[in-house]
Amino acid sequence: MTTAAQPEPPDDDLIHVQRAQAGDLDAFDLLVTRHQSTVTSMLHRFAMNRADLEDMVQETFVRAWSALPQWQPDKPFIHWLKRIAANIGLEFCRKHQRTPFSRLAQRDEQNDPLDQIASENEASSQTQSLAEAQSILAHLPPDDRALLTLLHLEEMPLAEIAAHFGWSKINAKVKAFRARQRLKSILTRHGYTLD
Amino acid sequence: MKSWNELARNARDAAPPSDVDLRAAIRAEITSSSTRNAVPDLIDNLAGLIRVPWFQAGLATCAVIAFIACRDGFDIVNELAFIWQLQGPAINGI
Question: On chain A, which terminus has fewer CB atoms closer than 10 Å, C or N?
Fold first, then answer.
């Protein structure tokens, strides 16, 4: 049995985006209310730290506001917003690239007893898994880290990642292959296998 | 050996904070940035002027004219420098 192609739902955001493009901040507020959980969820894959996460979400919407005149209604608003968020995630990876000194800083942070108490009480196993995955991915170069964060943790299709970062599909495939190779060697050091 | 896929699967289930509401912060940032953009300061104006091609061309022309005008005076400048150089040991001797 074949399923008929579902028609795309109309973009409910269109009217609000058009009003925001005309400078209506209240309409933009509605868009923020509607999409901030999606953006937060996506950027949470890059940073669990509350302050970093809020900074990134805020930056996403501020940039969206500035770039609103360039938005075209041919694609849903959320896709365009995700593109901005993905690039902010990439910038975050570039800014927080791992250095020999970052390990020392991380150790100091881990030794904070208040953090330890908080993490013991609050952290679920999923949260710990995310922290560990982020810690492993942080060993990669920034572009690889952003790519694999979206691919493995956000489960974003490679074609979509390529479109967000302005790469060709072939280039994205090559980058993903090389990133996986690098990840493989890092995983071995951490006692993991890439099945 | 642990499985990366298993770790990634667990990590995907990690819930993001549900109480993130940045509407006020975003609105404040947008409002302040639009105010900043509306009143460009002197440095912005100067930086903008330096980026204009005709201004750069004019500056380069002025530099060339100044070089041509001063070229004839180089001998005199060299003489003065030489005399200045000689004065050093003489003053030290005193």
Answer: N
Amino acid, res. A135: S
Selection from A93, A112, A91, A109 nearest residue A101 by Cα: A109
Is the ipTM value over 0.90, yes or no? no
Check A54 against B20: CB less than 8 A apart.
Answer: yes
The answer to whether B42 contacts chain A (CB < 8 Å) is no
DSSP B28-69: HHHHHHHHHHHS--HHHHHHHHHTSHHHHHHHHHHHHHHHHH
Give the pLDDT score at A3. 42
| Residue that is written with structure tokens 């006692």 in the block | A191
* Residues of chain B below pLDDT 50: none
Interface test with B, best of A28, A37, A127, A129 (most B CBs within 10 A): A129
List C-alpha distances in Å: A72 to A17, A63, A78.
10, 16, 12
Angle, helices A158-165/A169-189, rounded to nearest 10 degrees: 110
- Distance from A181 to chain B by nearest Cα, in Å? 13
Shortest Cα–Cα distance, B41 to chain A (Å): 20
What is the predicted pLDDT for the residue at A74? 85
Closest by CA to A143, choosing from A84, A190, A89, is: A89
With an 8 Å Cβ cutoff, is B21 touching chain A?
A: yes
Is A40 close to B27, i.e. CB distance below 8 A?
no
